[in-house]
Amino acid sequence: MPTEFERFPNLRVFDHPLVQHKLSIARARGTTPADFRRILDEIAGLMVYEVSRRFDTRAIAVETPLETTEGRQLSRPVTLVPVLRAGLSMTDGVLRLFPEARVGHIGIRRDEATHRPVFYYAKFPHDVRDGYSIVIDPMLATGGSACAAIRHLKEVGCRDIQMVCLVAAPEGVRRVQEEHPDVLVFAASLDRELDANAFIRPGLGDAGDRVFGTVE
Ligand code: PRP
Fold this sequence. Notes:
Shape: globular
Mean pLDDT: 95
Number of domains: 1
CATH architecture: 3-Layer(aba) Sandwich
Oligomer: single chain
Bound molecules: 1-O-pyrophosphono-5-O-phosphono-alpha-D-ribofuranose
Number of strands: 16
Helix content: 25-40%
C-alpha cells in the first residue's frame, strides 16, 4: 500500500521497492532518453494497480466452460488524461495493463517566466463525465498545470478525478489539496522543495525534455 502523510491527506506515495529502484534510474543525469521513456512507462504500469483499487465494479454472469458463475466488471469507464507533453510518457505503461481505458488529451505548458499554466488543447471522450479520470503528468511542481487540468475536467462535468505523477513538490501537493480537496494524488516521490526557478529538487530535470530529447 502506498504511504500516507498526515500533512497531506490527499497524497499517496509508492514506497514499493521496484518503483523506488526505477525512480532512481529516472532521476540519474546519465539516463538516456530511451531508458528514461522505458522507465517512466514501467513505473506507470506499476502504479495503476493501486490507483484503480477504489474503482467500483458490478456483478456479471460469466459462463465458464463448466458452469455459470458470478464475476465482476468495472462499472464505469476510465479515461486517462495525459497532460501534454510529458504526461504521454506514462500513458502507454498504464494502457498496457489496462487497455480498456480511453485517452483524453489536455495541452498545458508552464510559462517559463511566470511559471503559470498556459492551456492550449483539450480532447476528451464525449462521455468522460460518466466515469473515472486519471490525470497523468510526471511532474507536480507549483501545481498550476495539475490544477488547471483538474479544473478543466470539472468544467466538463467530471467528478471522480485522480492524479498520477512521478515526483511531486510539497508546494504542488498543497495547492491541489487546497483547490481540489476531492482529488487524490499518487506519486513515486514527495520531493524536498521547489527552487527559485520553480524546479522540483532533487527532481529529475524537465521530464518532457528528457522524454522527447529536446534538452538544450
Ligand atoms: C512541466 C510538467 C508539468 C508542469 C509542472 O511541463 O510536465 O506539466 O511543467 O509544473 P507546474 O506544477 O509548476 O505547473 P512543461 O510546461 O515543461 O511542458 P512539457 O510537458 O511540454 O515539457
